[in-house]
Request: fold
Amino acid sequence: MAAAAGLSPAHFSREFKRAFGESPHQYLLTRRLERAAALLRVTDWSVADICFAVGAGSVGSFTASFTRMYGRSPVAYRRSWPPATRFVRIPRCVAMAYARPQNRTFREDQATASS
Reply:
């Protein structure tokens, strides 16, 4: 991304962190975990399938990161939501589109809203 922006990796990372409040790496991990949480709520995919669908490298590190962020394991998180997918079957492509995180955390959104 730094090369596409025409910046050095270090400068890009500093500017990204200044704009979004977290490093590019942390931002990516956060978005992956948000996506995984959405998939756990609306699909009946296995935790391993969700892990690899969001781009995590291993189920163990995914589970540890998910537990750290949400305070419970992926399986416990899924159990805390109604089992909607057992009653309604929808195509995987629709589930993936629906499961995209809706809340935006970009700092510039707040600046634009107050302008």
Summary: The two ends are 29 Å apart (CA to CA).
